[in-house]
Amino acid sequence: MPDACTAGVIATPDPESCPIAGDVAQAAEWLDDRDYDSAPVYEDGRPVGYVTRDAVADAPADASLDDSIESLTVDVLIAGDAPLDEVLEALYERPFYYLADRSEVTGVLTRADLNTEPVYQHLYTKLSRLEQILREMILEHAPEWQETAPIPPDVLDDIDSRLADAKAAGVALDPIHYVQFSTLVTIVASSERCSEALGFDAGHQASSRLSAVTELRNDVAHATPILQNTEQGLTESGRTVTNLLDQYSLIDELLALQNE
């Protein structure tokens, strides 16, 4: 089954081209009016390169746009069938890419495109599978979790209430199926056997890394932007491409346990 979360699916299709006539001041105004950071440039119906807001801003106002056009070289192009892990690695390196065929630019891929429906659906599927893996690991390695894990009484009461409702409806499963994701992480982190089975050196490492996945899971579930910042400075906060790549890689590593 084809991957439904490739660069071609995520990217914005058929990006508008910047008019080649005129000077860089006109190009800068054109980009600003549309809030574009970059745009392809066509001449005689064929793409000849692209311009960026930074390039035209740094050029003399009366300079020809030709001087600011950059070539569509391999380092700014991405294959339409590139899967999400490759997309994340690429967007870690630079903020945008173009998709192109022989005669036209067919799409533009930016970090903002990570906050789109195909990415949410893709992550939701993976996170649902991960949740099931955590349940299986707990049943195998920490079946006494209700007595040993540091779960607040109100959370245990909520689990019991969900289980009671399921029993009343005749659809009850094992109590672990009524535990929310964040509590599953608490159980895993409190069990040395669970942590080791999932490849963590210790419970505190499992807690730290899986807590970030829990936050991602909550953002996906509530349609909150999953990419929240494009910088990682001392005063910046929010999930960056670097964070998202790390969390996505961890999810894939844990899902690979299903195939071992």
Sequence-ordered SSE layout with sheet pairings:
Blueprint: H1 7-10, E1 12-13, H2 24-34, E2 38-43, E3 46-52, H3 53-58, H4 84-93, E4 96-100, E5 105-110, H5 117-141, H6 145-148, H7 153-168, H8 181-190, H9 192-197, H10 203-221, H11 241-255
Antiparallel strand pairs: 1-5, 2-3, 4-5
Provide tags for this entry.
2 domains; CBS-domain; two-stranded antiparallel ribbon; mainly alpha; 11 helices; 260 residues
Residue fraction in strands: 5-15%
Task: Tally the structural domains.
Answer: 2
What class do helices, strands and sheet pairing give? mainly alpha
Quick one: biggest sheet?
3 strands, antiparallel
Q: Please count the beta strands (DSSP E, at least 2 residues each).
A: 5
Radius of gyration: 24 Å
Q: What distance lies between the first and last C-alpha atoms, to the nearest angstrom? A: 21 Å
Runs with pLDDT <50, length 5+? none
What is the averaged pLDDT score? 92
Strand order of the largest sheet: 1-5-4
Can you count the helices? Answer: 11
The shape is elongated
User: What is the H-and-E element order?
Assistant: HEHEEHHEEHHHHHHH
User: Considering DSSP H and I runs of 4 or more, what fraction of the residues is helical?
Assistant: 40-55%
Describe the 3D structure.
The chain is mainly α and 260 residues long. It has 2 domains: 7-110, CBS-domain (Roll); 117-259, no CATH class. The protein is built from 11 helices and 5 strands. The strands form 2 sheets. It has a 3-stranded antiparallel beta sheet with strand order 1-5-4. Strands 2-3 form a two-stranded antiparallel sheet. A hairpin with a 4-residue loop joins strand 4 and strand 5 (105-110). 31% of the residues are buried. The mean pLDDT is 92.
